[in-house]
């Protein structure tokens, strides 16, 4: 999933993202509020070594620096904390005490600042002084050689425990941590939902379910919609730049879908109209012999069924549409034998004949899932466009449809995603109407 696709997924599922984000922020603030108030007191220690000559002083400086680094780790260890616990008879453990100790070296010196946290000002100051005293004794024992009274490295208290400072309220800090965690949690929740959602909701869902490129997204508005016009122009460009088949004649493309609820007839009609740009002759064919769609749109009569049965010639039933460059061939009269006409030699011969007369032929077929018509027609075409509808097409159906078309050797060009944005248009009476083509299946005469 690319970054733009992921951002689209977040825009679509913003409620999931926002819920996860606010939940983590709220949890962080609550954790900050329940944290006990602490007080910090600081004690300063100095690490020094014996030496008089210049050479010895330089050597001692190296020793002091090394010791200071070591002492920082020892000051925050449980060993020293246990000495403080034993001295003061504290109820808390050495581990609990050590978590409230922080030691840092003042830059360019061998001075160590030790911060100790207590539950009250008095306790913080007492703990800091006791820790400093116990550490001086502890380090002296470490630095004094066995059987000798000579101690080369010394640790001394430069300043006793400072007046305790109340720790800053932590809700803000915890809230910021919660916000960061919320971004991660929200993004993860959106990603998981995108992968488990059974429906195709954005183009990346269609690409993931089908394994095919998304050729374009087209609104469900009519030809008068600016968004629709630009969308189909982009789709036309993608198709024209695709690898062309070998041989002469026009290109024949098939438009189908994974389920009958998708309006492939509207896509066929608008794609055909867009392909006429530049003066190309285009034919749109309704190959849904089980239920007419193009005749509902254009009011056409006999067509493909009659041509395949030899009852009529193709040039007698083709209807001229719009600007004279777009022709339409309806499905024809419904008969009981119509569904057996597509996987025949007559259909193959018709497609070859149409190549010679048209630059582009766009054939709309029934959905792949319920019947085999789409798979039968795909053998005669140069490419198949699979149309899906946002929020309607199921990923499982799309995957099965693609597998079915792959099985018969269809050349799958990609997926076209129909969005749910509708563009209004004006009818003959001037009233504003929805231009989305009806997807109902009417029984023909």
Name the descriptors.
Rossmann fold; 5-stranded antiparallel β-sheet; 18% strand; 15 strands; Alpha-Beta Plaits; alpha/beta; 445 residues; 8-stranded mixed β-sheet; rod-shaped
Task: Describe the protein's topology.
Blueprint lengths: L2 H10 L1 H21 L4 E11 L4 H22 L2 H11 L5 H5 L2 E5 L5 E8 L2 H23 L9 E7 L5 E2 L4 H26 L6 H8 L3 E5 L7 H15 L10 E6 L7 H12 L6 E5 L7 H5 L5 H6 L4 H4 L1 E3 L4 E4 L15 H13 L2 E5 L8 H5 L5 E7 L5 H13 L4 E7 L5 E3 L5 E3 L11
Parallel strand pairs: 6-13, 7-11, 7-12, 8-10, 8-11, 12-13
Antiparallel strand pairs: 1-3, 1-4, 1-5, 2-3, 9-10, 14-15
GO molecular function: non-membrane spanning protein tyrosine kinase activity
Keywords: ATP-binding, Kinase, Membrane, Nucleotide-binding, Transferase, Transmembrane, Transmembrane helix
Protein name: Tyrosine-protein kinase EpsD
Describe what this molecule looks like in 3D.
The chain folds into three domains: 56 residues, no CATH class; 128 residues, Alpha-Beta Plaits; 225 residues, 3-Layer(aba) Sandwich (Rossmann fold), CATH 3.40.50. The chain has 445 residues and is of the alpha/beta class. α1 packs across α2, α2 packs antiparallel against α7 and α4 crosses α6. The two termini are 49 Å apart. The C terminus is likely disordered. The protein has 16 helices and 15 strands. The chain is rod-shaped, with a radius of gyration of 40 Å. The longest helix has 26 residues. An eight-stranded mixed beta sheet has the order 6-13-12-7-11-8-10-9, with helices on both faces. Strands 1, 2, 3, 4 and 5 form a five-stranded antiparallel beta sheet that branches. β2 and β3 form a beta hairpin.
